[in-house]
Amino acid sequence: MTSPSLRSSFPHSSSSLSSSPSSSSSFTLFRHLPPELRLQIYRHACHPRVASLTYLPAPQDTFYCPTRPPALLHVCRESRAEGLRIYVKCPLPNLHHTTTTTTTKPDDGREGQGDDVNGGERGRDERYFYFHPHHDTLYLPRPGPAADPFGLGYADWARELAAAVAATFAGVVRRLAVDYVPAEVRRPWEAYGKICLIGGCPRLEEAYLVVSGAGAGACAAGERGGAEREVELVDPGDGDGEIAEIMERVRESFRVELGDGIAGLLGAPGKDGERSGRSGEVGLELIPKAKMPSPSWAGRRLVCAS
After folding, report:
1. Is the peptide bond before 143 cis (omega within 30 degrees of 0)?
2. Domain boundaries, the chain
3. Which of 51, 15, 206, 27 is nearest to 129 (CA)?
4. Measured distance CA(9)–CA(11) in Å, rounded
5. What is the three-class DSSP state of 91?
6. Which residues contact 131 (CB under 8 A, 6 or more apart)?
7. Is the pLDDT of residue 208 over 70?
8. How many beta carbons lie within 10 A of that of residue 275, not counting itself?
9. Can you point out the beta strands (E) in the chain?
10. At 246, is the secondary structure helix, strand, or coil?
């Protein structure tokens, strides 16, 4: 039996415990945590994202990014400061305008924000997106009919983009996704355009081929093209045999363009199925993915009482 003195020391303990689960859904004592713990929480709040760059032909001749900035940049001052240390600020490529903005790496080894090479003020029309080198995927979809009425697909812009990216943020891209284009609509130059995009990222670790759509409102890759809203890339569902055939056809189209040079890009089969390429290292392999609309951010936002 609890003594009166002990019971009087905690007069509201039982009521507070019973009401705590339903009293509030936010952690209001976050600001009282040690700074080191808060920073760790911010870093763990960096969710994988798909940064889509959709080509807009002439007269715009530029790129559109429908991916919203990371939620970490909009919570509070402290989270934004940490987010700017984690995410790389990448300029949107302008194919016929030499950009003076590059990405740099701070002394602490983490990627930093864009710096003006010439040391002057940035132009007011500068457009950019945020990219996490270790979590995010750069997705370059095939332009849809509205933006590409002649169905040119991965045309000159793909080769020019590869050169522009190589001079700006190619060093931070470790995951790249491109669309599979069915044979009935594919143009002869599209395989080479995708090869240029993949080969233009020297630090690439994974290359994805978006072979289908998944979820409500999705369409097969290459039918409509483009990315007008945020998307996620997931493992494709049924139809493993069909997907395997698609991947083999794509590899064959790459082989036609590169010949034996395909081993340097995607790797050549070796012992136990391992692929070697790129200076003797394990070569890249195209990984099939399905595209689906990204769910609401409602469950992913951080709420910080400041």
Report:
1. no
2. 47-71+132-266+283-299
3. 51
4. 6
5. strand
6. 51, 87, 88, 90, 138, 169, 172, 173
7. yes
8. 16
9. 50-52, 54-56, 62-64, 88-91, 101-103, 114-116, 128-131, 137-140, 175-179, 206-213, 231-234, 268-269, 275-277, 281-282, 286-293
10. helix
Span 218-245, pLDDT tens digits? 444 444 455 567 899 999 876 678 888 8
| Partner residues linked to 176 by β-bridges | 138, 207
Please report, as a single letter, which amino acid is at residue 154. Y
pLDDT one-digit tens code per residue, 245-271: 888 888 888 888 777 655 556 654 444
Q: Note whether 178 and 194 are within 8 A (CB).
A: yes
Q: Give residue-wise pLDDT tens across range 59-115.
A: 778 888 999 999 999 999 999 999 999 999 998 887 765 444 445 443 333 333 343
- Count other Cβ atoms within 10 Å, centred on residue 69: 15
Paired tokens of 7: 């019971």
Angle between helices 156-166 and 190-199 (to 10 degrees): 10
- pLDDT higher than threshold 90 for residue 154: yes
Which burial class, exposed, middle or buried, applies to 138 when counting CB atoms under 10 A from its CB (0-12, 13-18, 19+)?
A: buried
